[in-house]
Design a protein that fits this description.
Helix content: 40-55%
Number of helices: 8
Shape: elongated
Protein name: Resistance protein candidate
Number of strands: 3
Pfam family, one: NB-ARC
Order of helices and strands: HEHHHEHEHHH
GO molecular function, one term: ADP binding
InterPro entries: Apaf_helical, Disease_R_plants, NB-ARC, P-loop_NTPase
Strand order of the largest sheet: 1-2-3
Strand content: 5-15%
Number of domains: 2
GO biological process, one term: defense response
Oligomer: single chain
Largest sheet: 3 strands, parallel
Radius of gyration: 19 Å
């Protein structure tokens, strides 16, 4: 989905609701940004620390080694993993090369702006913009702390909602 549609928010809600049902879990937020600033090996290390429930660095010297370590940790384990804001096929390749790495009953959620990265996935859900009524309600909740705009601000609220094109983040910020 487009930026600001709520992909990360939806993934967090699902993760918070279901992660307790799994023995091993990890939520890697902002993969794109972290990868650009700290490198893919940092994300691999974070994933391994989450899954192994340790705080120490796993001493990953290169992404190939990191991928093998992840494969060995994931094998035969029922895991719940969220990779948020993936923007490159290498990120998927080195964080979760293929489904054979996962134990039975495992679940992986990937959020991305690039639908083409998800070609081999079982289910793809595209987050859509809010309709006018939903957008109006969300804006009003942030702007007026109620479901509908105050009478004096209906026209202005309508203009803001049209301007935001149903993007929840824009509605929240402007509200």
């Amino acid at each position: 989905g487009m930026p600001g549609t709520g992909k990360t928010t939806i993934a967090k809600v699902v993760y918070d609701k279901f992660s307790h049902e799994f023995e091993y879990m990890s939520f890697l937020e902002n993969v794109r940004a972290v990868c650009n600033t700290m490198g893919l090996h940092h994300l691999q290390n974070q994933l391994l620390c989450d899954l192994l429930e340790v705080e120490r660095n796993q001493n990953i010297s290169n992404v190939g080694q990191g991928a093998n370590m992840i494969k060995n940790v994931l094998r035969f384990k029922r895991v719940f993993i969220v990779h948020d804001d993936i923007d490159d096929s290498d990120q998927l390749e080195y964080l979760l090369r293929n489904r054979d790495w996962l134990g039975k009953g495992s679940r992986v959620i990937i959020t991305t702006r690039s639908k083409h990265l998800l070609q081999e996935m079982d289910d793809v859900y595209e987050v859509e913009e809010l309709n006018f009524e939903q957008a109006h309600e969300l804006f009003s909740l942030y702007a007026f702390r109620q479901n509908l705009p105050k009478q004096d601000f209906i026209h202005l609220s309508d203009r803001v909602v049209y301007y935001c094109h149903g993007l929840p983040l824009a509605l929240k910020v402007l509200g």
